[in-house]
């Protein structure tokens, strides 16, 4: 997709007999069922740095989060004697990261350059998280359920964040203006679907929404991710050469079960970024982007419209078509992945316009809605009279990672929803990193050498009493070829190859 891509997914967690205040400690214990000797290196992280040129004083937190954290500290007891004793970051041999975040197990895919690689590693991550949950159950005897969703139905939301490497010479103001109409209308095909409402004027209302995340956004732009969430996250933390790149951290998307919907969500966004980098502007300005995304989410029937800054009401699908047309003009015929995204993007917009029910074999919100409609019909119930808790319990099971209980897996097994990934590649991705990004170096070093610390852009390797530092921040400009390293590569070979990649990147920058 002509850029590095990544996904970070926080998973919903239920453990029988564990209170909310105890859940943080147990989520940490679940992550620690996977062994790892390497420590995460936080030196290169700057979550308070804002791309608009200043540093935020703090990240805003939700009052409920603060109370839960207080209960968690009380339940956890004395602090650990050393950072390593409390280490809850797991660096995996496939180049990924598995860790604990605010009471949730979180999985970050390795950096990928191919859309199919990214989706495959995201699917592999689901299985890694579920395997950790099964080990936790064996160790504790407690029933545990893990959900790939975004809401606890009690006003708390957790994210599925997308990461895209973007050229630094694209002014952020233009990037933001170009993205807002796209991200607002993207939920027509990138929403996971949701029963009920948790915020706004009607909390507890029995409605069906296209998106699980849309109602939790209150700002246009900020560095925050936990409270007063923005549609555009402004964190400036590139994990790459900051003179050339920024990392766009998209937090307004849903966690998706459908491989097809996930491919469309990430693939279309990556192409739109390419359109903006080539100087194209937004096709329209929305009068109220936050109000628009919430209104679109609360209409599952079709006929979606948005209001422009000039006060004109236009079809939301046409906003997407404008971005699609620009992407077709620039990228059609570039490669098979790009052509798949362009073709399926156009097909999906046609179906959204003609009859959204046609999309129940591809999009999560439509598949879930069809499943719930079928259940209600079989039970002789109506949306207006069925208990909200019953509908939400069924919806939650749609997102379960348990292959024997999850309703999505049943739909997939029966061929009701489309598949685009191969089982063999998913199982391979559980063990091996992509071969064409710097994740290959991280995975190789974890498999072959003693790694004392690691991050997305740095590795610290032990060689006797000596520590060898590998700077990977410049190993992002072009695809690397892992086949260039011999299977029995020594640490010296890896160091020299990394230096060669870095020198090449610096030479390209000077040219």
Provide a brief overview of the structure:
It is globular and about 70 Å long. The protein has 511 residues and is α+β, with helices and mostly antiparallel strands. The chain has helices at residues 20-31, 63-76, 115-140, 172-190, 259-277, 289-297, 316-331, 336-354, 364-379, 388-398, 407-413, 423-429, 439-448, 491-510, and strands spanning 5-10, 12-15, 39-40, 49-50, 54-55, 89-91, 97-101, 104-108, 144-147, 160-167, 194-195, 208-209, 217-222, 229-233, 245-250, 305-307, 313-315, 450-454, 458-463, 466-471.
Task: Write up what this structure looks like.
The protein has helices at residues 20-31, 63-76, 115-140, 172-190, 259-277, 289-297, 316-331, 336-354, 364-379, 388-398, 407-413, 423-429, 439-448, 491-510; strands spanning 5-10, 12-15, 39-40, 49-50, 54-55, 89-91, 97-101, 104-108, 144-147, 160-167, 194-195, 208-209, 217-222, 229-233, 245-250, 305-307, 313-315, 450-454, 458-463, 466-471. With 511 residues, it is α+β, with helices and mostly antiparallel strands. The strands form seven sheets. A six-stranded antiparallel sheet has the order 6-7-8-1-10-15. Strands 3-18-19-20 form a four-stranded mixed sheet, covered by helices on one side. Strand 7 (97-101) and strand 8 (104-108) form a beta hairpin. The longest helix has 26 residues, at 115-140. The chain is globular and about 70 Å long.
């Amino acid at each position: 997709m002509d850029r590095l891509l990544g996904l970070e997914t926080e998973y919903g967690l239920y453990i029988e007999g564990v209170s909310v205040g105890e859940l943080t400690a147990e989520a940490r214990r679940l992550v620690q069922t996977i062994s790892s000797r390497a420590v995460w290196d936080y030196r290169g992280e700057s979550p308070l740095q804002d791309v608009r040129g200043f540093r935020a004083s703090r990240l805003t937190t939700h009052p409920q989060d603060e109370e839960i954290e207080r209960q968690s500290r009380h339940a956890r007891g004395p602090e650990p004697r050393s950072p390593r004793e409390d280490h809850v970051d797991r660096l995996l041999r496939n180049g990924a990261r598995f860790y604990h975040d605010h009471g949730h197990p979180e999985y970050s895919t390795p950096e990928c350059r191919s859309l199919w690689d990214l989706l495959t590693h995201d699917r592999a991550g689901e299985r890694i998280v579920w395997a950790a949950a099964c080990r936790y159950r064996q160790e504790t005897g407690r029933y545990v359920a893990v959900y790939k969703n975004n809401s606890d139905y009690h006003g708390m939301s957790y994210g599925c964040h997308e990461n895209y490497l973007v050229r630094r010479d694209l002014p952020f103001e233009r990037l933001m203006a170009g993205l807002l109409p796209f991200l607002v209308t993207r939920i027509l095909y990138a929403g996971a679907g949701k029963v009920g409402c948790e915020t706004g004027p009607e909390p507890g209302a029995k409605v069906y929404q296209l998106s699980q995340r849309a109602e939790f956004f209150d700002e246009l732009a900020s560095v925050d991710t936990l409270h007063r969430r923005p549609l555009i996250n402004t964190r400036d933390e590139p994990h790459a050469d900051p003179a050339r790149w920024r990392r766009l951290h998209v937090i307004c998307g849903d966690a998706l079960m459908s491989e097809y919907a996930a491919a469309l969500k990430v693939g279309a966004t990556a192409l739109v970024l390419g359109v903006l980098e080539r100087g194209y502007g937004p096709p329209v300005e929305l009068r109220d982007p936050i109000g628009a995304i919430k209104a679109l989410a609360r209409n599952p029937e079709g006929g979606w419209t948005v209001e422009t800054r000039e006060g004109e009401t236009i079809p939301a699908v046409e906003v997407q078509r404008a971005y699609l047309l620009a992407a077709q003009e620039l990228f059609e015929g570039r490669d098979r992945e790009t052509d798949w995204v362009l073709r399926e993007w156009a097909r999906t917009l046609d179906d959204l316009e003609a009859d959204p029910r046609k999309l129940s074999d591809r999009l999560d919100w439509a598949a879930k809605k069809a499943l719930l409609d079928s259940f209600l019909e079989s039970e002789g119930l109506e949306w207006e009279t069925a208990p909200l808790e019953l509908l939400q319990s069924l919806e939650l099971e749609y997102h379960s990672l348990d292959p024997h209980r999850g309703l999505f897996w049943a739909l997939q097994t029966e061929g009701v929803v489309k598949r685009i990934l191969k089982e063999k590649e998913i199982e391979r991705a559980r063990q091996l990193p992509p071969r064409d990004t710097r994740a290959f170096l991280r995975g190789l070093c974890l498999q072959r050498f003693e790694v004392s610390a690691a991050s997305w852009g740095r590795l610290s390797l032990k060689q006797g009493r000596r520590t060898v530092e590998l700077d990977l921040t410049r190993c992002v400009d072009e695809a690397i070829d892992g086949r260039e390293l011999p299977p029995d590569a020594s640490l010296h070979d890896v160091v020299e190859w990394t230096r060669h990649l870095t020198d090449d990147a610096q030479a390209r920058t000077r040219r």
